[in-house]
C-alpha cells in the first residue's frame, strides 16, 4: 500500500474503501500533487478485487474548493475513468 502526501486511505467496511482529501488548510483544493495521488490511489483500488465501492471525502468542514487557482491542473484521473467499481463523493451536510 502506498503512502500519500495529500490523501488518507481507509477501509470503512468489507469492500468499501474511503479516500479522504487531506488539505484542510486550503479547503482540500486540488493541486498537481493531489491530482497525481488521486490517479495513483484510484488505479491501485481499481486493481484490488476486494474493493467494490470507493467513497471520496474531504477532511474537515469542506469537501473541496476545486482546483487550486495557482496550479496548472491538466491531469486525467485514469483510475477513476476505468469504471471497475462505483465511486461516490461524501461531503458534510449531504445526508
Short synopsis of the structure:
This protein is an alpha/beta fold.
Describe the protein's architecture and organization.
The protein is of the alpha/beta class and 95 residues long. The protein has one domain: 2-enoyl-CoA Hydratase, Chain A, domain 1, CATH 3.90.226. 20% of the residues lie in helices and 24% in strands. It contains 2 helices and 4 strands. Strands 1-2-3-4 form a 4-stranded mixed sheet, covered by helices on one side. Strand 3, helix 2 and strand 4 form a beta-alpha-beta unit. The relative contact order is 0.26. About 5% of the residues have low confidence.
| Annotation, overall tally of beta strands | 4
Q: Which class in CATH terms?
A: Alpha Beta
* Fourth-tier CATH superfamily name: 2-enoyl-CoA Hydratase, Chain A, domain 1
Distance between the termini: 31 Å
User: Could you state the oligomeric state of the chains shown?
Assistant: single chain
Largest sheet properties? 4 strands, mixed
Architecture blueprint of SSEs:
Layout: E1 7-13, E2 16-21, H1 32-46, E3 53-58, H2 78-81, E4 87-90
Amino acid at each position: 500500500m502506498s503512502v500519500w502526501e495529500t490523501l488518507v486511505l481507509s477501509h470503512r467496511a468489507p469492500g468499501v474503501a474511503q479516500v479522504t482529501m487531506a488539505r484542510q488548510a486550503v479547503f482540500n483544493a486540488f493541486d498537481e500533487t493531489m491530482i497525481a495521488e488521486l490517479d495513483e490511489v484510484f488505479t491501485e483500488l481499481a486493481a484490488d478485487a476486494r474493493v467494490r465501492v470507493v467513497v471520496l471525502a474531504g477532511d474537515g468542514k469542506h469537501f473541496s474548493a476545486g482546483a487550486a487557482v495557482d496550479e496548472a491542473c491538466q491531469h486525467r484521473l485514469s483510475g477513476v475513468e476505468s469504471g471497475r467499481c462505483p465511486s461516490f463523493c461524501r461531503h458534510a451536510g449531504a445526508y
